[in-house]
Amino acid sequence: MISTILIFPIIACVLVMLVKKKAFGTLMVNAYAIVHFICTLLLAAGIWENTVPYFAVDSTNIIFLIVLSLIFLMVAIYNTGYVRHLEGSDKKLSHYSFMILVFVLSMTGTLLSTDLAISWILIEGTTLSSAYLIYFNKTKHSIEAAWKYVFICSIGIALAFVGIILLNISSGAINTMNFEQLYQHATEFDLMWLKLAFVFMLFGFGAKMGLAPAHFWLPDAHSESPSPISALLSATLLNSAFLVIVRVFKIMELANCTNYARLMLLVMGFLSLFVTAVFVYHIKNYKRMLAYSSIENMGILAIGMALGGAAFYAVVLHLIGHSLAKASFFLTSGNVLELFESKRTKSVSGLISADSKTGWLWVASFLAICAFPTSLLFISEFIMIKTMILDKHYILCGLFVLLLTIILYGIGRVVIKMAFGELSEDKAKVVEKNINKISILMYIPQIILLILVFTMGIYIPDCLNEIIKIAAGTF
Description:
The chain is built from 20 helices and 2 strands. By secondary structure, it is mostly helical. The model has no long low-confidence stretch (mean pLDDT 91).
């Protein structure tokens, strides 16, 4: 199954480049999404072989793989409707499909990798493939966003590489980057070099994850990408970088450097929340607003990792909930952009009057991401707050709640104005002209994602809950 999930997109890419037709490229993206989803379910069920050289499914990465597979399937469905009215030649749109396949392959390889060096290489692969997708619209802002993305992420990857070298120095005679072997020998590492290595890797991979202060690429990249790509960037790419940090954090735990690692994560986590709270009030672009929300939620994951204990379970829940809700939010923002032909918040008003389905999906996505009961995010954030109180971190708890409240208000006022404001006559004409561009395929994925995120806040199937608990136990 792992071989299938890694080899299929390579064959599909070759075929896409040979045929160079928009419809065929879209077909290959959908085919890979289905194959990816089926293989992931079989791997999660333990039906097939789950190990090949340098790649394996384990208790930690399986939940990340399930999330990636589900989000990719939903994005592929949405993308089928989205590309129907996408302007460009067959060659350009074939390149678009080609890069989606490479992008998802790179993320899948990152999740399945059993070697830190290979994870580093594949993380760089996600940068190269997604840079083209960010630049796809070829506007002044998109090329600026793509260059900023490549520049900052390349610096991050370089820092991570330095961290890997320092980790190798700290390991002494243990000449390996295999995660399992690193775990086995972690107590033998030189702690000074190990701590220094963790700083470099946290900042390096944290740049890819979107943690402040290395987050500057994220608002531009997410806002300028085509909406299906924005959903993949926020709901799956950030998770891939987070998994590498989780694995490196485990080395720190086993080497008895837990407090040092937790302090670093705590600082970057709260800094991410603070940055979002400050900038969310000055955003005039609703896709940038969603991007800052991603920075906030990556900060919450970092804080959960720092808290430890029951918060590890909350981290996994939050990762799932954020991915589902944010994918829905970004896909719905694609509908909004199609209808109003603008990303400016002031240019969008009366969304429910313009298109009730898009309007209510917009509101529901906001409720999901802001942890409104019964959103899964409500459970995850509740557990984190409870953990802070039980551990007597009262100041941190107060700051955590305060920053989340500020962010909630900042995003909420924009969402409410856009959804329930008055639809002007000029905008009504624009909407009437564009309403036919939105097909049923551009509603179904968000509906499925939102049903999942709100249902899981009430009930998580036993089989899935067991996977989540086992994953949390390996952090």
